[in-house]
Sequence to fold (287 residues):
Amino acid sequence: MKPQVVRECSALHSLVKSLHLQNLRVGLVPTMGALHAGHISLVKESLKNSDWTIVSIFVNPTQFAPGEDFEKYPRTLENDLALLEKENGNQNIIVFTPSADEMYPKNFFTYVDVAGVAKPLEGQFRPTHFRGVATVVLKLFNMTQADIAFFGQKDFQQVQVIRQFVRDLNVPVTIQMCPIKREEDGLAMSSRNRYLSADARQRALCLSRSLKRAKAMILEEGIRDRATVEAEIREILTHPKHSIDYVAIVDPETLLPQEGAGIQLPVAILLAVRVDDTRLIDNMVIE
Ligand code: AMP
Fold:
């Protein structure tokens, strides 16, 4: 059964109101579409943990900077609906796919600006990104009145940013982070992987490979010197057609470097690398 598709905020509002009146638990999975098994793993988790699941599909213009891939970002709604249809056995999936005008009507002037955890890493390389993400996610929380929302560890910093504003602004929603889904060869699934040529796709494996190597250095070889681990990661990532935005070995809560030259567990390793023209991110938390 095809999931119910809602395009207008007012229609979503009525639906959500009736669900809450029936005391049903609402789960939210925010996405930008071009769905893959990573997104579907979040949907499955939501179906397990709530009565109704709202999957939002919206390529959010405010989280792209000029010159980024907003225009060419893949939009594959028919395919997305077909994938969701397979999960809709109990007919409790709603797809919310608003237009940009619906989300950002004329005279829209309010944004959520998170400091602290939003500032390093992605915040440094994409300074307006998290403002767009936090704004659209708070709007989705308000529109859906979700009890619980599901996000992927793939965007680890994003989850920390969302947790931060949920705490700061007393938003009544539970945030659940779900593990990174990978292709069999280790590549983290991403809607942007479809930009990669066959050759770049092969080279892109260096991200997951470098994280695996770092984990082995830390856990199996007992190496705790941050500079040594970072140097090894950089060597694996380096290629004439790659450019590294960052390799960060940081505290998983603050996303800042740990004190001193050593690594203490738990530690998060986050990467952003341009492979040809495609910017890829990946990460691993080592406990
Ligand atoms: P996006 O459509 O890229 O904005 O992603 C929507 C949600 O899916 C975010 O919470 C992502 O972290 C999550 N997601 C994307 N890729 C993966 C993946 N490979 N594994 C798990 N979750 C993912």
User: Anything to note?
Assistant: Residues 191-282 form a domain with the Pantoate--beta-alanine Ligase; Chain: A,domain 2 fold (CATH 3.30.1300.10). The longest strand covers residues 242-250. The chain has two domains: 4-178, 191-282.
